[in-house]
């Protein structure tokens, strides 16, 4: 049967956008906030493009009211943001700083006044530097510090925020932060990256319990995973075995204990040359397996892998942990290949079918658990025209393609409740500095003026009508 001309979504489907604190807030020294690992990392020479930092970012801390008004003008029904841990609990220990919590109270109240549902992410990579100085995520104590922080935020905002997300992309925190070192804190220790992954899992489970105790029962708790779609270069058994190993490290290491209460045996066996897993205590897996109310999926591009042939060692391509050091423990005999097709400014191939495959996998992996696409988007070299307008037809085509696959998944039975584009605003793109623009809203970094791009208007129409507008002719 031919596809209908109008692609409609369920009436309650949430149309949102995502951001993270360090990428947009700025005000890094105000109201009691102390440095996070990203403050330290970005101020370390050679770590970020051009030595750029999030000190000012796009000044959302002072401009949040205008930004919320812009969301409302575009017609968004939901907004996913993260709380800055060192803004709320500067040392990662002890009582909360009310001035820090007050910012998020004001932000949430502003969202609710405009009819926009807040979705709060507790951790988007900004560990307080003092906790890193004490060992960071490779240390077990960090998981307990995270649970205490979660309780403080839950007590402060649980009366007005219903949707909670514990961790954003723990794979990046563990393996880019402690394995390849291309993200903060910039360490390159494969064993530490595996310990970090486990303690992120443990912190998640402890935080779920802490939030349940601190908040109304109707609030919903999720986690956002950047689960990879891993495909083989060929059907050769060695390539299929390579897919299994990468899939375990990208996906099973998190969804195994979170959803099923166990790490994949194939993961444990493949990484025994790096760690004996003695850091996993008997009760940990039960704690990590705390029941969830939803699951967030972040998707950008698929991975294409094979077994190495002869002396060839695989490039760790951008999007899969590119850098001098591998983020993939015990995988030096696996090659990452460029996937075919058009690419974004990040060099990532555009393949909307990967999002469909990811959604359907988790519909099977966690039957009955509602799903949200909590990040999806593309970077392009956007520039204003002489009239000051910003046209980004490539992003419109990208969003249309990926949202069409979300709708196909819904048609095929997946319980997808919402989509959050990455990102609302152009912002500090981690180690890339300000050179990669993911925003639906253009930000002039000299003046901080916001200009909605044509994709923002297109997406806003989708949000208002619940249907995908056509892709305009270029």
**Could you name the CATH homologous superfamily of the domain at 7-227 and 362-468?**
Glycosidases
Question: Helical residue percent?
Answer: 25-40%
- Structural class computed from helices and strand pairing: alpha/beta
Q: Which CATH architecture of the domain at 7-227 and 362-468 is right?
A: Alpha-Beta Barrel
Q: Helical segment tally?
A: 15
How many β-strand runs? 15
Ranges where pLDDT stays below 50 over 5 or more residues in a row are: none
Multimerization state = single chain
Overall residue-averaged pLDDT value:
96
Write the layout of secondary structure elements.
Elements lengths: L6 E2 L5 E5 L2 H4 L12 H6 L17 H15 L3 E5 L2 H4 L9 H16 L3 E7 L5 H5 L7 H17 L5 E6 L1 H11 L9 H25 L5 E6 L4 E3 L4 H24 L4 H6 L13 H5 L6 E4 L4 E5 L26 E4 L15 H13 L5 E5 L17 H19 L4 E7 L18 E3 L6 E3 L1 H12 L1 E2 L6
Parallel strand pairs: 2-3, 2-12, 3-4, 4-5, 5-6, 6-8, 7-9, 8-11, 11-12
Antiparallel strand pairs: 1-15, 9-10, 13-14
Catalytic activity: Hydrolysis of terminal, non-reducing beta-D-glucosyl residues with release of beta-D-glucose
EC number: 3.2.1.21
Pfam families: Glyco_hydro_1 (PF00232)
Describe what you observe in this structure.
Keywords: Carbohydrate metabolism, Cellulose degradation, Glycosidase, Hydrolase, Polysaccharide degradation. It holds the Pfam family Glyco_hydro_1. Its EC number is 3.2.1.21. The protein is an alpha/beta fold and 474 residues long. The chain has a domain at 7-227 and 362-468: Alpha-Beta Barrel (TIM Barrel). Helices cover 38% and strands 14% of the residues. The protein has 15 helices and 15 strands. The protein has helices at residues 21-24, 37-42, 60-74, 85-88, 98-113, 129-133, 141-157, 170-180, 190-214, 237-260, 265-270, 284-288, 353-365, 393-411, 454-465; strands at residues 7-8, 14-18, 78-82, 117-123, 163-168, 220-225, 230-232, 295-298, 303-307, 334-337, 371-375, 416-422, 441-443, 450-452, 467-468. An eight-stranded parallel beta barrel has the order 2-3-4-5-6-8-11-12, surrounded by five helices. Strands 7-9-10 form a three-stranded mixed beta sheet. It has a two-stranded antiparallel ribbon with strand order 1-15. A hairpin with a 6-residue loop joins strand 13 and strand 14. Helix 3 (60-74) packs parallel to helix 5, helix 7 (141-157) packs parallel to helix 9 (190-214) and helix 9 runs parallel beside helix 10 (237-260). The longest helix is centred in the middle third of the chain and has 25 residues, at 190-214. It is globular, with a radius of gyration of 21 Å. The model has no long low-confidence stretch (mean pLDDT 96).
